[in-house]
Amino acid sequence: MRLDDCIHFCAPSRLIIERGYRQKLPGLLHSIGYRRGLLVTDRFFAEQTPWVKDYVTACERLGVHVEVFAGGQPDPTTDLCDRATAELRIKLDGRLPDHIVSLGGGSNIDLAKALCVTLAAGRPVRDFSAGIMSDTPVIDHISVPTTAGTGSELTPGTILFDTNTGIKIAVMDNRLRPVIAAIDPDLTFTCPPKVTAESGIDALTHALESFVTLDSNLFDRGGSVDPGYSGRNSLTMMFARESIQLCVQYLLRCYRDGNDVEARVGMCYASVYAAMSYGSAGLNAVHGIAYGVAALTHKSHGATNAVVLPYVIDAMSESRHAELLDVARMFGIQTTDEVQAVRALPHQLRGLVGKLGIPTDLNAFGIARTSLQNLLTDALGVTRLAKAFPVGNIEESYADIINNAWHGRLQNETTARFAAD
């Protein structure tokens, strides 16, 4: 408990974590009263697994009609959302679903969230980037993730790549939080090592960022009485700490052996706990800079976060010393010099990123040095993330982080010897 906390915590009305639960989901939806649904997924799950057919058949048997949209794509764009909206409104012929189920990773979940608004309104998704009006109908969303990392199955926003501007936009509203998050760890067993690594480091990033982000009593809520994000508090930090510990224990294990059941289940919990933290606390510089990196490289969300993460944590070694010392101990950094322990943590994180097969600096990641100023401008342009970064001079800190990340430079390189292997 912290006496100055201003807690505004939101979670799904139903959170389920159970192996094999996908087989029970149709019964739950029927019992709630849903009768007409839309399943949003992609061609892989529709054509290469039995899950979609099994789900539709089970629902129809219970009297729940399901339309399937299998056009999901990685990093969905505003154009994809608008095309899907137009196509589905024609196909549905005015009979809107009473719920939308997403099956897939964060990309499919984000697309489904956007469709929860655009299908009912019949308007382009960009219309909602400034907010969703209180009288705008939002279709209920049930998320069924197949990766362990994004946490989108619990959060209030959808992130889409805006083809007009070349950067990602966010549509935020607590009504976009799935009403049911059904996590079946068995679904993650199809993830290849690359997806396992990039989604897993995403979970760790969410937990770390929210653990050290701006405090709730300092967070700018823009005057909202129902903010999607509202700064860290004792509750979010509790979930973040648990997620970090699980990532330390299971992320590399899961990456190295995708059939390790304990590790797969452990990373599902890590993803959920991270989402329970950042889904209310919010994020800051890692994601803010990573959005700009994604615009330049079009690489995955998890990888763009990973390459930036060590350098952002390095920049907070003083402003968040106590919290990062806690994290350093979780990572097995046991040197008695607390300053050196905190400075060793970014080296440990960079080593983990490398072990997951992800480049560890922006140069190796494909960012030209001549692009660094544009990257800085784009990153600072995501103001909701920049102003949550708990440092003195945010613009100067962002510039240093980007420059250090390009050169692969961390404080006191010699402190790396304190990092656990």
Descriptive terms for the model:
421 residues; alpha/beta; Rossmann fold; Dehydroquinate synthase-like, alpha domain; 2 domains; two-stranded antiparallel ribbon; 15 helices; 8 strands; globular; disordered C terminus; alcohol dehydrogenase (NAD+) activity; long-chain-alcohol dehydrogenase activity; ADH_Fe/GldA
Any idea what the CATH superfamily of the largest domain is called? Answer: Dehydroquinate synthase-like - alpha domain
**Whole-Å distance between the termini?**
34 Å
Instruction: Extract low-pLDDT stretches.
Output: 414-421
The counted number of beta strands is 8
Strand portion: 5-15%
How helix-rich are the residues, as a percent range? 40-55%
H/E topology pattern: EHEHHEHEHEEEEHHHHHHHHHH
- Large-scale geometry: globular
By CATH, the topology of the largest domain is: Dehydroquinate synthase-like, alpha domain
CATH architecture of the largest domain: Up-down Bundle
Please state the average pLDDT score.
95
User: For this structure, what is the CATH class of the largest domain?
Assistant: Mainly Alpha
Could you say how many structural domains there are in total? 2
Strand order of the largest sheet: 1-8-5-4-2-3
Kindly name the structural category: alpha/beta
Which radius of gyration do the C-alpha atoms yield?
21 Å
Cofactor: Fe cation
Domain Fe-containing alcohol dehydrogenase-like C-terminal: 233-382
Family: Belongs to the iron-containing alcohol dehydrogenase family.
Domain Alcohol dehydrogenase iron-type/glycerol dehydrogenase GldA: 12-185
